[in-house]
Amino acid sequence: MSERVQYIKIVKWSDEDQCYIGYCPGVIGPCCHGDDEVEVYRELCEIVDEWIEIARQENEVLPSPIIGLEIEELLRSALP
Whole-model pTM above 0.85? Predict the structure, then answer.
């Protein structure tokens, strides 16, 4: 199982941009966008996998997994 499952991934509609935006709180901010919500989610998953792989190669500490955290608290901290 991929490590990405430990991190919440969010795809939301942006009225300003008129497209879906994907991001992973605590890992990466808005990083992909498009007209198809499912495609944006797929791309976001790939980006998170790549981000984790690069962090491992560079011996960087990964953020704590999201599993077990209060989702409401996490979302409040991720929103502007």
Answer: no
Burial of 22 (0-12, 13-18, 19+ CB in 10 A): buried
Distance set, CA 24 to CA 4, 21, 46 (Å): 10, 10, 12
Reference 6, options 80, 72, 65; nearest CA is: 65
Q: So what's the pLDDT on residue 43? A: 98
- What are 1's two structure tokens? 């199982």
Residue 15 main-chain phi, psi, to 5 deg = -60, -40
Res. 72 pLDDT band, cuts 50 70 90: low
Q: b vs e for 59-79, b when ≥16 Cβ sit within 10 Å of the residue's Cβ?
A: eeeeeeebeeeeeeeeeeeee
Q: Which helix (H) or strand (E) holds 20?
A: strand 19-24
